Amino acid sequence: MSGFPEKILIIDDDHALLEVEELALKRIGDIEVQLCDSCDQAVTAIENFTPELILLDLKMPDKDGTEAVRELRKIEKISGTPIIFVTGEHRVIMQDDYKVLGVIGIIYKPFKPSDFITGIQDLWHMFQNP
Question: Which of 4, 41, 101, 111 has the smallest number of Cβ neighbours within 10 A?
């Protein structure tokens, strides 16, 4: 693992935000990004893509974040992949239930692209150096 994950899966039903996140990540280097607008689409994408990190919208129409994480954890090759929740709900705080599922932190929307990148870097660093 390096100072920043090189393969990131982003799952969010907001297409405009997916584009902003992808552009922010591509600006910092050679990062492979896979965008999915649902958990079902992510499950399919993972067949050909093994992320080092997953960014997951906590509130989506098809599943909430914890349901989505439980489904993703059934896929053996990503069963230990760290997950960061992304949410517009500022009342949401990191819970032990999330940690047990392998969620390493939360990034709050709205955000500036630079804050988004810093948030990922900080959480990734804490994950690598517990």
Answer: 41
Dist CA 52 CA 98 (whole Å): 18
Are the beta carbons of 105 and 85 closer than 8 angstroms? yes
Is 2 within a domain? no
Look up the CATH number of the domain holding residue 79. 3.40.50.2300
The conformation of residue 99, written as its DSSP 8-state character, comes to: H
In order along its 130 residues, the chain shows pLDDT tens digits of 467 999 999 999 999 999 999 999 999 888 999 999 999 999 999 999 999 999 999 988 888 888 999 999 999 999 999 999 999 887 776 677 888 899 999 999 999 999 999 999 999 999 999 8
- The verdict on residue 93 lying in a domain is yes
Longest Cα separation, the chain: 35
How far apart are the C-alpha atoms of 40 and 27, rounded to whole Å? 28
Domain count, the chain: 1
The answer to whether residue 1 sits within a structural domain is no
SS3 category, 33? strand
